């Protein structure tokens, strides 16, 4: 009986040691020092960025890892992504980033004989960028409309500068409207009737509320054309045609007068007063 209990105890210990796995795995992602408290990393929009995941495992620990974004497996076979490994360091390179690349990236580690994967999450967000056209031309009296395109999330606060005056909201003739596509307030500047005095440099300024020291801006040169500007060339052409016609008319009039005077001088007085002149010669010719 005692022998049987000893065998049962040994079997229990054997089963316990084969099912309980103590995994010593430490996962570290390359957070920005400034944002380490909330485990975030900032990147520049339209450029490449790299996430590094360092996995510290106990000797002999077998594991595999994968990358996930917002809780879904990341398709690392795409040309946009490149995965490399250098010892304990696993790197994910994201090429030519866009707004859609912003999100929560996970370095997920699956340990052999352990059903529960281990992971570390890093929040990726971007520096913002504002962009306007370099030059814009408008006709006097038309609607002046300048859009400011914003890249990056979270979106910054937009304000405008015209000359020495700054507009944070609609004021006087200047109306600031929301860009519905990008979801950015004050991203479109509108003046209903452009005036020649509206010519100048317009500056779109973006400021992130959480980081007021980070500012990005872009300028556009606005030129206003006189509404009659297109009429002047036409009037010039009409004047040229009129002058040319007048010159031709005067020239023709003088030429006709000269020909008439010349025809009068060619006829002698005798020929004019003797209408039967030349009859005798004609008669002799007939005979």
UniProtKB/TrEMBL annotation:
Keywords: Disulfide bond, Immunoglobulin domain, Membrane, Signal, Transmembrane, Transmembrane helix. Residues 259-287 are annotated as: Disordered. Pfam families: I-set. Residues 47-110, 117-204 form the Ig-like domain. CDD domains: Ig. SUPFAM superfamilies: Immunoglobulin. It comes from the Eukaryota. This is Basigin isoform X1. The gene is LOC108562858.
